[in-house]
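Hi D.,

Good news: the full-assembly prediction came through. Inputs first.
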Amino acid sequence: MKRSIILILSVLLLQSSHATEGMWVPSMIKQLVGDDMAAMGMKIDPSDLYAINQSSIKDAVVHFNGGCTSVLVSDQSLLLTNHHCGYSRIQAHSSLENNYLKDGFWAMDLSEELANPGMDASIIQEIRDVTDELLGDVSVDASESTRSEHIEQRSEELIEKIKEETGFDAYIKPFYHGNQYLLFIVEIFKDIRLVGAPPSSIGKYGFDTDNWVWPRHTGDFSVFRIYANKDNKPAEFSEENIPYRPRHFLPVNIQGVEENDFTIVYGFPGTTENYITEAEVENVLEVINPLRLKMREASLSVIDEAMRKDELTSIQYAAKQSRISNAYKKWIGQSKGLTRHRALEKKDSLEALFMQRIAEKEAWNQKYSTLLEEIAAIEAEELPYMVNRNYFIEFYYMGPEIFRFVERFRELVSMSEDANVTDVQIAEWIEDAKDKLGYFKNYDAQVDKEIMRAQIGFFIEDQADADFLSGIKSEKQSLMEFVDHLYAESMFVSEDRVTDLLNNFKRKKLKKITSDPAYAFSKRIAAHYYESTRPALLEYVTQGDSLMRVWMAAQMEVLPERTYSPDANGSLRITFGKVEGYAPFDGAEYAYYTTLAGVMEKEDPSSEEFEVPVKLKELFESKDYGRYAHSTGEMRVCFVASNHTSGGNSGSPVIDANGNLIGLNFDRTWESTMSDIMFNPSICRNITVDIRYVLFIMDKFAGAKHLVDEMTLVSGVEG
Ligand code: ASP
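Then the structure:
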C-alpha cells in the first residue's frame, strides 16, 4: 500500500496544475507548477526561487521567530516583517517614558538598534525528500504505533547525521498527511535587533475594527536586523557581533503594481486543513468555533474596557489583546465564509463523487468503501474531548494569566519533594524564577480577576464531566465569590509576595504554595486535561490521523483531476496569484488597492483605532511622496491579490514577476479566512502593504532615509 501511495503522489505531482490555489514546496516548484507560473506571467526561472548550489530568493526569506515570515532587503541583512509580527518586541521595549508602540521607534545607526533576547530568525538551506529513508522498510501491515515509532527513530538518526555532516540544524515534517516526509536544513540566528517601527497609528491603523478587513489602510511593517559573529555565523547576542552578510537579499521594486500583475508570496504558512471531511467542517462550524468565540468575547470585553480606561494597562495588555482578538475575529470570518460559500455542500458533493467513482472499480471499492464512515465515527467519538481541549486552551492558556504563572511553581514543589534534588539545585531554580519576575511588569491582578469572572461559568458548566471545584470551592460560595476569594487570598497576584516567597523559601514549608487557592485551581484544571482529556484525545487523534493519511491518498488516486498541494505545516512555501480585486457580496466590487487619501477618510479623532499622526496629514496635504508615488501621483497603501496564504505568512515578501519585492503580506480579507479550510479563488485575497508606503513612512515620515539607502531600489522614478 505504501508503495502505491508514493507512486500516486509522484504521478500526480507531475500533472497537478491549477492557478492560485495551493502552497507549494519550493524545491518542487519547477516540477509541479513552473509552467503554470510562467503562463501566469513569471519572468524568472524556478531555479531563481529555489537553488542549493547557488544563491536564490529562498536565501532572503527568513522564518521570523518561528511564527511569522520576514525578508532580507540589504547586504547588511536589514530585515522587514510586519508590525504585528514585531509587536511583542516593540511592546517589550516600551514604557510610559518611551512608548514605542504609540510613538514608533527608529534607530539612527547600528549602535541604537535594540537586542531581543530569546528571539531567533532562521534561513532554510536545503529541502530534501526523505520519505523513502523514513518509510522504506516499514511493512504495509505495520500498526500505527510501530509506524510512528519507526518514523520517530529514523528521523532522529537522520537529523543527527545531517547536523554532523553540514553543521546546520535540521527538522523533518510530514506532508500530505503523512504520505510524504521532507527534511529541512536550516541556519538559526540568535541575535536579532529591532531597528525601527512606525507608531501603531500607522503600523496597526484600524486596529481590531479593520483587522481581516478590506479595504485596508495599515502600514503593517517593522524593521529588524540579523547579527552574526565575525565569521558570519549565528551567535548569541554580543557587542562584538556585526550585521550578517546574507547570500541573497531582495531588490525593491518602486514602480508598483497594476491590476493582473503576477505575484508570488514566499513564506511559512502555519496550518491549513484543506482536505478535511464534511463531518469535520461541520464540527468546526457548529461546535468548536462557537465555543472559542464565546470564551474570547468574554475575555476581550474585560481587556478592551481596561485598556480604554488606562494608558499603563493599554501598554501592558496591548500584545495580549492582539493575540486574543486576532484569532477571534478570524474565526468569525471563517464561519461566515464557509457558510456563505456552502462549504458543507461542496464537501458533500466531493464525497458523493468519490463514492460514485469507487463504486466503478472493485479494487477501490474494497479499499475505500467504508473510509468516510470510519472517519465520521472517529470524529463523533473525538468531539467531546476536542471540546474539553478547546476549553482548556481558551481558559488555561488564553484566559487568566495566573494559571500559567503558578504552573511554574509545580516544578518547585516536585523538586522539593524529591530527595534526589539537592538544595543547591533548588537555590538555582529560585534564582532563575527571580529573573522571570519581569512578568509582573505587564500584569494587572484586577484585570486578570475580571477575565476569570467572565469565563469561569462557561468553562465549568460546559464540561460537566469534570469536578474542577470539589474541595477547592466551599459549598456556600458562589462561583463569583470563589473567584474573588482566589484573587484576594493568592500570593501569586503580587510581585512582593512572590519575591518574599522566593527569598525565604523553605523546602519543608511547601504547604504555603500547595494550599494557595490559585495554585490548587490551576493544578486541578491542568490535571484534568493532562490526565483525562489528553490521553483519550491522543488515541482518537492517532486513529484519525491514520485514516486521514488514507483519505488523502485515496482522493489523489480516485480524483486525479483535482489539485493537491500539501496542507500548510509551518514549512517554507511558495504561492502564486495575481493582483486583483473581488466582489465581496452582491452588488459590491472592491478595487485592488487603497491610497493615503483613504487613511484620511477613515480618520476619527474620537477613536484610538483611527487616529492619524499630524506629520502624516502634513505629508498628505503637501503630496510630498517623492519617488514613492504611483504613476498616477497617489500614495498607494495596500493591495490585494489572489495568493493562497495563511497565518504564518504574515511578513512574507510579496514578489513580482522579476523577483523583486513589491510588498509585505500581512493579512487576508474577512471573506478569505475560510481559506484555511477551503480556498475559493473568486473570493480569497491576501492583503499586502505596498513596499512604497513602507519606504515612504521610513523616509519621509520617520526621517530614517538611511534605511532606504541600504536597499537596492529598481525601476524607480527619482524624486
Ligand atoms: N494577519 C494574519 C495573521 O495574523 C495573516 C493571515 O492569516 O493571513 O496571521
